Amino acid sequence: MLTTRQGIRPLHAGDLSAFLELTGQDPVVNVFAEYRARTTNLEPRWLGGEIWGRWDGGDLVAACHVGANLVPIQATQEDAYAFGERARNRVRTVSTIVGRQPAVRSLWSSISDSWGTPRDERWEQPHLEQQLQSLVEPDPFVRRTVRADMEVLYPACVAMYTEEVGISPETGGGRDLYRARVLQLISRGWSFARIEDGEVVFKAEVACATPGAAQIQGVWVPEHRRGEGLAARGMAAVCDIVRREIAPRISLYVNEWNAPARRAYERAGFLETARFSTIMF
């Protein structure tokens, strides 16, 4: 294992081309990192952090997003360990470590003794891409949400987040920030829902997108409507819109234990293409 910081430095705007070449090696798995680079031009003030690059003979061979999320990018286990060695002596500012499982395991092994006990560790998360034709008809009632839907949509977003993450997004005075995030997704045309009689019965969002790929998040059906096929048909509808109007390839990742969600995604044409892990603080 590498135990030095040799060859690692923060990237800047002049490195954008090299970074996009790196993320382009796997544009679907790296959609978050590429989206962040394209929208910030790798400027720290817009990133809210840094992206570290590891160089070998003048070539960028791996990177690590260091902001609210710590995300290894095209990193071998050796690269990830080196990034962890650089991060271990910093005060932890990230709330989540997420990425391909081998890299996350290696990164965590180098910083776990200095970053404290995580709130949750989710080591087995299938990364899925829609690669097959959906087995179900798209739900014709799923549509993009609009600002007028906000008061109905927002409680559903809070319920989904709380169920998935284990804490409310409003904890610690986060309500205004989370409402702003939901409104941002609506304004971008990245928020989708089926609404019946003033109730959201299915919802999903695009978390990030590039010219080549989009990642779905926040898929949710209220508990009393589960088992009706709303998720599978809703996802088929969302994917049709996203593929037609946002990006040609669509991915998401899901907890391995969430069998109902995995069945819904399978029916919507998704296959596992990688294995992710997430550590939450």
Automatic annotation (TrEMBL):
Superkingdom to which the source organism belongs:
Bacteria
List, alphabetically, the SUPFAM superfamilies matched.
Acyl-CoA N-acyltransferases (Nat)
Q: Where is the N-acetyltransferase domain?
A: 144-281
Q: Which GO terms describe its molecular function?
A: acyltransferase activity, transferring groups other than amino-acyl groups
Pfam families assigned: Acetyltransf_1, DUF4081
- InterPro entries the record matches: Acyl_CoA_acyltransferase, DUF4081, GNAT_dom, UCP21603_acetyltransf
Designated name of the protein: N-acetyltransferase domain-containing protein
Lineage of the organism: Bacteria, Bacillati, Actinomycetota, Actinomycetes, Propionibacteriales
